[in-house]
Amino acid sequence: IRIVDPETFEMLPTGQQGMILIGGPQVMQGYLNDHQKTAKVIKEIDGCRWYVTGDKGFLDQDGFLFIVDRYSRFAKIAGEMISLSAVEHAVHQVLREDQEVVAVAIPDEQKGEQIILITIEAIDIDWLRQTLITHGCSPLLLPVGILQLDQLPKLGSGKTDFAQAKQVVLDQLNTDQSS
Questions:
Q1: Residue 116: φ, ψ to 5°
Q2: CA quadruple 10, 15, 18, 19: dihedral positive or negative?
Q3: Residue 11 forms beta bridges with which residues?
Q4: Phi and psi at residue 150, in whole multiples of 5°?
Q5: What pTM was computed for the model?
Q6: What Å distances lie between residue 118 and 2, 54, 70, 139, CA to CA?
Q7: Neighbours of 141 (CB within 10 A)
Q8: Taking a C-beta distance cutoff of 8 angstroms, is the pair 104, 116 a contact?
Q9: pLDDT tens digits for 6-38?
Q10: Do the Cβ atoms of 55 and 69 come closer than 8 Å?
């Protein structure tokens, strides 16, 4: 296991969070007939093949691995990697803990990406943004909009369907732009 910077793939020191790579003979050769996908997840570093897990984590001083998030659940805003889980956590700090919310990242021409919050309850975006700032939240974590739905997209397991949530937001934006 190796923890690396997700952009440069440089190895990070013990305790620092980064992309988790797994190396060794168990690493697959690649995806069948899909060289582009293989190139995204298999990296050759120092003569060893490494699988890029997409997970964010760190190794402690005893060598234990801690997984803290998924890089697919990050937004890149003005060059900064912003955890969508951290956005949801911050929102839960000012709302009820049981109020379901999902943060998704969508493209933004000026900043790279922007954060939209999906909820099933009405929330005033100006109130939410101001309240988050008052509670010391970084401005980078602030959603730029809220989409209220009757229910959040779920997988058959009952867990949030993040891919579908993002697609719902993109579909809604396309509908709004064509109206």
A1: -115, 135
A2: positive
A3: 4
A4: -70, -35
A5: 0.70
A6: 35, 23, 19, 18
A7: 22
A8: yes
A9: 889 999 999 999 999 999 888 898 899 999 988
A10: yes
